Amino acid sequence: MESAGEFSHMENGESKALMGKESWNNGIKTAQNMSTSLMRKKSDPMLVSRVRFQMLRQFLANLQEVILGTKLAVLFPAIPLAIAADFYKFGRPWIFALSLLGLTPLAERVSFLTEQIAYYTGPTVGGLLNATCGNATELIIALFALYRSKIHVLKYSLLGSILSNLLLVLGSSLLCGGLANLKKEQRYDRKQADVNSLLLLLGLLCHMLPLMFRYAAAPGIFIADSNLQLSRASSIVMLVAYIGYIFFQLKTHRQIFESQEEDEDEDEEKAVIGFWSAFSWLVGMTLIIALLSEYVVGTIEAASESWGISISFISIILIPIVGNAAEHAGAIIFAFKNKLDISLGVALGSATQISMFAVPLCVIVGWIMGIQMDLDFSLLETGCLALTILVVAFTLQDGTSHYMKGIVLCLCYTAIAACFFVHKIAAPLDQTNVNMGHKPSSGFSA
CA end-to-end span of the chain, whole Å? Predict the structure, then answer.
């Protein structure tokens, strides 16, 4: 009887000897992949094995693995509902809510598909795929906001992803792990945390320089162009640092980022769909994410006005929580199992990727598009980011954990959420009236 795994070999025209080469499981399997894997469920090959035609049987097997192979499959109907709501001109807040729900299973499935491709490409290419697609949802939303010149939404959403990972995900993991292991001392490897903390501090420096430059300018001096050039130069520095981080992670110091616990109770995994099927599904789901992201960006103001919630709160708090719910839940479950290295890898790895890759990439893309996207996140937002990174760095400095650390991080996130809930300062909706050198009095300096 043929299984779904055998279908994948038939699709690629290869024998099972393909899996004899170095596999993803023998390379580096990141914490993000392991976290989202908890949201998956095994499918039964018996359901499609009796289908007579091979191509139809293979398609149904792939459909079963990709669509039904996640515990979040119940949210997939939100995708056609969002499209129908837009087509029939339903209320824009409904389009926003449905699109946000539809993004949740798609984010988890993108992680699954990149992992499937990595079984065939090897650990290095797989690691690069994960480094690029690990936060695909946030990056696509940010790029659509940039395309629509909604710089405030872009900055808010990326800042919210960093804060969510560092405070909510990490704090919830430490809290739940501490409560579940009261009689044990939870320990983790500080090496990975130290590397990520250094990169986050470098990113913070690059974010603070344009802000300090703006406030240090003498009155009456137009510094908008200089500030923009500084942001672009800093973004190049951040991208170079991120490339060095990827080389450090995948080549020279791979052992630091490998999850030591992953082989304790898990058998060696194999690909369940073929390379070209995985690639096709990945392209298709990326296009759907792009469509839903366009809906989110286009309807966020209407949702804010209808619900009476500020755009800053929706972008910084709601979008990151819903968009990465699967990854966040997986990190907490691993903390329950006393596997804090994986939980820390999820939180710190995602925050580092957003800070050092997504943010500077948006600045460079904006430069190419002629849009004045900079690293000046204004005083309130940059202050929250700076204090968050410092609190997390102090929290992780001793290599041990208890539930009190989790309580402190969660309360920090609650305080920041309350701040942006009452933050009603209007941000510019487009770049047509962006200041050309005048110092902004409040909000983002775009």
Answer: 60
Which residue type sits at 264? E
- For residues 414 and 402, the model is more confident at 414
> What distance in Å separates the CA atoms of residue 223 and residue 216, rounded to the nearest whole number?
10
Question: What are the residue ranges of helices labelled H in 38-133?
Answer: 46-49, 54-66, 78-87, 92-121, 123-133
- CA–CA separation, 245 vs 402, rounded Å? 29
CA distance linking residue 195 with residue 188, whole number of Å? 14
Using DSSP's 3-state secondary structure scheme, residue 55 falls into: helix
- The pLDDT assigned to 1 comes to 42
Q: At 187, is the secondary structure helix, strand, or coil?
A: strand
Amino acid letter, residue 133: C
Give the residue with greater pLDDT, 233 vs 430: 233
User: Residues 235-253: pLDDT tens digits?
Assistant: 999 999 999 988 888 778 7
Q: For residues 320 and 257, which has the higher predicted lDDT (pLDDT)?
A: 320
Lowest mean pLDDT: which of 92-101, 118-127, 200-209, 410-419? 118-127
326 Cβ contact partners less than 8 Å away, ≥ 6 residues apart:
35, 36, 39, 70, 72, 104, 105, 107, 108, 111
pLDDT tens figures, 152-180: 889 999 999 999 999 999 999 899 888 88
- Minimal CA–CA distance to 173: which of 381, 330, 354, 384? 330
Query: SS3 of 70, please?
Result: strand
- Tokens of residue 64, six digits: 């079963």
Contact 65, 272 (CB under 8 A): yes
pTM greater than 0.90: no
How far is Cα 285 from Cα 301, in angstroms, rounded to an integer?
26
Residue from 136, 160, 131 nearest 345 by CA: 131
Run of H or E residues at 401 = strand 400-401
